[in-house]
Amino acid sequence: MQFTSEQHLDDGVIEREFTLGEIPGILWTPSSVSAPTPLILISPPPLGLRKMHPRLAGRARHYATKYGWAAATIELPGSGDRPRWAAAEQARADLRRAMEAGEPVTDEIIDALVLPLVEKSVPEWRTALDALLSLPEIGGPVAYEGGVISIGVRLAVVEPRIAVAGFYAGSFIPAAILEEARQVTVPLRVLLQWDDEGNDRQAALDLFDAFGSKEKSLHANLGGHAGVPRSEMEDGARFFARHLK
Amino acid sequence: MQFTSEQHLDDGVIEREFTLGEIPGILWTPSSVSAPTPLILISPPPLGLRKMHPRLAGRARHYATKYGWAAATIELPGSGDRPRWAAAEQARADLRRAMEAGEPVTDEIIDALVLPLVEKSVPEWRTALDALLSLPEIGGPVAYEGGVISIGVRLAVVEPRIAVAGFYAGSFIPAAILEEARQVTVPLRVLLQWDDEGNDRQAALDLFDAFGSKEKSLHANLGGHAGVPRSEMEDGARFFARHLK
Q: Which GO terms describe its molecular function (chains A, B) (predicted)?
């Protein structure tokens, strides 16, 4: 883990860019830390860290200033400046074609779109977690929130250091992930935009139903993909706070 | 409106029992009020005020001490010491029989059980609202939370003084109420217990979908009818606070 830049922001938060091998990432920490802090992994949607920076930084700085937590994110495979791969480009083209033609998005398209992303990114998140937890100012416990919900499901199943998770049901869900969800046991909070254009509401409800967690809460709000109410950010932070002790 | 008792509680809240004609009710107000306060109408489930008192008082005192709001409730028709009527007893017996036999609860049973209760109680809530808003210490705006969700739907449609509502999707929903829900336009927060024994999950989701409100939020939590997490009470209060200005 190599830090490549460091900025001291006016709210007392330190924002550091880093690379982890070829993966770029960003770490936000409160400037004054007396004990090792909990860590929030913020998994971005696959639009690239640069494009998502204002939103990611907004959340991270809220966590740091209000709760004293560290937060970090890494670029997803195939996003930002990271190399694309042919199968992913093909799957994206197939999805676009199906949606423009008003045809159903088949299981094949969903699997081809999401599963390779899960396969590639989950080990990267685990490597990032190793590196982040080796920093003296970060101690855990660890919360995960994100982005591509299938990545979060797999990570919550295979990574015992994830203590709590906040998911955003805003992307297609492969049948295999729906099955894996039964093995998720951490406390869970799921956001669903009721009128999300690019999302199948029933699939999201089925996924919520499938989660094995004893504590799970679904917050559905009226509106499209980008319309999550601001109040949900603060509510999500309070949910993490109850479990990051 | 006749006050029949007055208690000064140790948290500085005044609890007064009253009667409104033959309807008993309870009013909680903060003891020191500098300006007329907002009002929360808390509609109980049909178990009777006496049985529900601890839970209702807990919520009302939270609103009064933390937010300075007044809160009031009245006994539902056919609950507590209020006279039963034959058709309601019959509908309850039919429901019990169907559920014990593992048979589907038909639309006829649901209509017979819920619609007369809506017909009777909505005018009573409006009368109570007249009386409560005539008190000098209460000024509005008014929030409604409850209980039997169908009563809330009708009240939110016909009563323009309701500014915001919090519903609990924990009872059967007649088809006519599902239709009326399209006319509800106030900001709305709906609680759903995902594994509610006496509740049809899909009917609750259909109702949420039907609401005409531009701002609506569904909070579904794992667990049975009585298992609403404590955090939802505080979250509900914050939701009201955003709209009671």
A: hydrolase activity
Please give the structure tokens belonging to residue A113.
């779109």
Are B222 and A205 an interchain contact pair (Cβ–Cβ within 8 Å)? no
Residue A194: its chain B contacts at CB < 8 A? 208-209, 216, 218
CA–CA gap between residue B4 and residue A88 (Å, rounded)? 72
Per residue of chain A (245 residues), what is the pLDDT tens digit?
999 999 999 999 999 999 999 999 999 999 888 889 999 999 988 888 988 999 899 999 999 999 999 999 999 999 999 999 998 899 989 988 998 898 888 999 999 999 999 999 999 999 999 999 999 999 989 999 987 899 999 999 999 999 999 999 878 899 999 999 999 999 999 999 898 776 788 999 999 999 999 999 999 998 887 788 888 889 999 999 999 98
A209 to B194: CB separation less than 8 angstroms, yes or no: yes
For A181, which DSSP code? Answer: G
Tell whether A206 is within 8 A of chain B (Cβ). no
Residue of A nearest to B191 (CA): A219
For chain A positions 213-242, those within 8 Å of chain B (CB to CB) are: 213-222, 229, 231, 235, 238-239, 242
**What distance in Å separates residue A227's CA from the closest CA in chain B?**
11
Q: Which domains does chain B have, with CATH numbers?
A: 2-81+119-243 (3.40.50.1820)
Name every chain A residue with its beta carbon within 8 A of the beta carbon of B214: 222
With CB atoms and an 8 Å threshold, state whether B218 touches A216. no
Each as own residue / partner, the long-range contacts of residues A230-235 (CB below 8 Å, 24 or more positions apart, any chain) are A231/B238, A231/B239, A231/B242, A232/A191, A233/A59, A233/A62, A234/A62, A235/B235
